[in-house]
From TrEMBL:
The UniProt record lists the keyword Repeat: no
Function in brief: Essential fertilization factor required for male fertility. Part of a conserved trimeric sperm complex with the essential fertilization factors IZUMO1 and SPACA6 which bridges sperm and oocyte membranes during fertilization by binding to IZUMO1R/JUNO on the oocyte.
Stored CDD domains: Ig
The UniProt record lists the keyword Disulfide bond: yes
Positions of the Ig-like domain: 34-130
UniProt cross-references to SUPFAM superfamilies, sorted A to Z: Immunoglobulin
UniProt entry keywords in alphabetical sequence: Cell membrane, Disulfide bond, Immunoglobulin domain, Membrane, Signal, Transmembrane, Transmembrane helix
Cell compartments where the protein resides: Cell membrane
Gene Ontology CC: plasma membrane
PANTHER family: TRANSMEMBRANE PROTEIN 81
Membrane topology designation: Single-pass type I membrane protein
Protein name: Transmembrane protein 81
Highest taxon listed in the record's lineage: Eukaryota
């Protein structure tokens, strides 16, 4: 009877679909005979669990627009017939992961919505996911939210210059060009040219004099 028995076991498995929190993995289940032969293989999806700590996600949102923070995506698998319990906390006005600074929020759903987002909503939101019944913590994620004021969002840095700005810039450019033209007309320019020319001529004469003296000395 032992020789004829067949075991159905997982012979291959994929990594968990997530690095933190609950996810899925795919296993290849086969019947294995005592001789090691595999038969009647099939692929089966099963529950898996990564690290419970998902870290801090930084988010920026413009004020006045709707925003939603999602702790656990819809359709996330759970082990057996268990369901999840969600707990939200907030450290208002801070970007932090220090658990001592968080205060509880009245929200027990997997998502937190703002309609619309306001500057007062800025801060760090922490979501804990636990299994109902055992209260085992399977996921903890932090959302560091910055809400950008509307007057900063509406700045248009790429707009072309107005006609008055272009005229002002053109006047500044012409003034610089006129300054260079006046420099060429000044007496200081000619004095500088004469000074440089005199220095070069003096150097040439001095070199000729030294050469002549060296030849006389050799004779």
């Amino acid at each position: 009877k032992l020789r004829a028995s067949v075991a159905r076991i997982a012979v291959n498995t994929t990594p968990c679909s997530v690095t933190c929190g609950p996810g899925l993995k795919v296993e290849e289940i086969c019947e294995v005979t005592p001789a090691g032969e595999r038969r009647s293989c099939s692929l089966v999806s099963s529950y898996c669990l990564g690290s419970f700590l998902c870290g801090l996600r930084h988010l920026s949102a413009p004020a006045g627009r709707p925003l939603q923070l999602t702790c656990l995506a819809p359709g996330t698998p759970s082990p057996g017939n268990h369901s999840y319990r969600y707990t939200w906390r907030l450290a208002r006005g801070l970007i932090t992961t220090s658990d001592l600074l968080f205060q509880p929020l009245r929200n027990s759903s997997p998502a937190l919505s703002f309609s619309p987002a306001r500057e007062a909503h800025a801060g760090t939101y922490r979501c804990d996911v636990q299994l109902l019944g055992s209260f085992k913590l399977v996921k903890r994620i932090y959302f560091g939210l910055r809400v950008i004021p509307r007057d900063l969002v509406d700045l248009k840095f790429q707009e072309p210059l107005s006609w008055e700005q272009e005229l002002a810039e053109g006047s500044a450019g012409n003034g610089s060009r006129g300054g260079w033209e006046r420099f060429w007309e000044k007496e200081e320019f000619y004095e500088a040219v004469l000074g440089v020319g005199s220095g070069v001529l003096g150097s040439i004469l001095l070199s000729l004099l030294i050469c002549c003296l060296q030849r006389l000395w050799r004779r």
